[in-house]
Amino acid sequence: MKILIIGSNGFIGSHCVNYFKSRGHEIFQADVNDSEDVNFYKLDRQNSNFSKPFQENQFDVCINASGSAHVGFSFEKPSQDFELNVVNVQKILVAIRDYNSNCKFINFSSAAVYGNPQILPITENSSCKPLSPYGFHKLQSELLLTEYHNFFGLSTCSLRVFSAYGPGLKKQLFWDLYQKAIKSDEVPLFGTGSETRDFIYIDDLIKIIELVIDKSPFKGSIYNVASNVESTIAEAAAIFIKEFSADKKIIFNGEVKIGDPNNWVADISKIIDMGFQKSVGLDQGIKKYAAWAKELK
């Protein structure tokens, strides 16, 4: 297959590049940062134009791993977050419609669309009540994919990613733990530690993408991307600290961080029906992340 990966220098994007190259696919990349790789398209940070790759090639699949994935940023700069997570998605869809209408389009949404669900586990049919501009913008991007499938016949699919992690991730819980642990013996975190998340290791996430490419009908389809395992923040943080620097002490401040949900665990029946089987558990995945982080010091 010929695959375009937008946001190819980012966490998920770079893992997609490496994996699909290893599988023998012809990979094209696009990002705002420079690269010496062949088949690379440089994008402007502002007013990005996504037409050129589709004008010059006919792709089988486009994976959009670009945009902002930071809840706090969406409160600080909601207009920029909207530009990155909604406007740019619409621009990509227009480019596909105009130049490469047979291309399958996968966009990364987020579990943030759900907010604080009333019932666990969360299914794709659960109510969406975002707690942040970021969550609202991801929900709007999903509606765009539905629109362009319904009215223009494009093959589209949204992946609601829960708490993805792995080597190369420089944000969210484990990166926060790493940065604080190298500076102090006390590691402060928001909340009580009893909050829960559904963590998924990057290798499993990539396998889900591959399954979706092969088996999804791409009719504005939506899938939860998670492990169906509910883990507390305290449990995950303790595993990381034990592996990274066991003499550090984690302190939860009891404060709720704006935009953060209380409890998440996903129903992943749809991807299980496609053949997904988790290969990396939380303990093993965090050990891999901690080993990568130690190499940064």
Topology:
Elements: E1 2-6, H1 11-22, E2 26-31, E3 40-42, H2 51-56, E4 61-64, H3 71-76, H4 78-99, E5 104-110, H5 133-152, E6 155-161, E7 163-165, H6 172-181, E8 186-189, E9 196-197, E10 199-201, H7 202-215, E11 219-225, E12 231-232, H8 233-244, E13 249-252, H9 269-274, H10 282-294
Parallel strand pairs: 1-2, 1-4, 2-3, 4-5, 5-6, 6-11, 7-10, 8-13
Antiparallel strand pairs: 9-12
Helix pairs in contact: 4-5, 6-8, 8-10
Protein name: dTDP-glucose 4,6-dehydratase/UDP-glucose 4-epimerase
Pfam families: Epimerase (PF01370)
Family: Belongs to the NAD(P)-dependent epimerase/dehydratase family.
- Mean of pLDDT: 96
CATH class: Alpha Beta
CATH superfamily: NAD(P)-binding Rossmann-like Domain
Oligomer: single chain
SSE order in H/E notation?
Answer: EHEEHEHHEHEEHEEEHEEHEHH
Write the CATH architecture name.
Answer: 3-Layer(aba) Sandwich
End-to-end separation: 39 Å
Individual helix count? 10
Radius of gyration, taken over Cα atoms and rounded to an integer in Å:
19 Å
Largest sheet: 7 strands, parallel
Helix content: 40-55%
Instruction: Kindly report the CATH topology.
Output: Rossmann fold
- Mass-distribution shape: globular
Please, how many domains? 1
Instruction: List how many beta strands DSSP finds.
Output: 13
Structural class: alpha/beta
Low-confidence stretches: none
Strand order of the largest sheet: 3-2-1-4-5-6-11
Proportion of beta-strand residues: 15-25%
Family: Belongs to the NAD(P)-dependent epimerase/dehydratase family.
Domain NAD-dependent epimerase/dehydratase: 3-226
Pfam family, one: Epimerase
Protein name: dTDP-glucose 4,6-dehydratase/UDP-glucose 4-epimerase
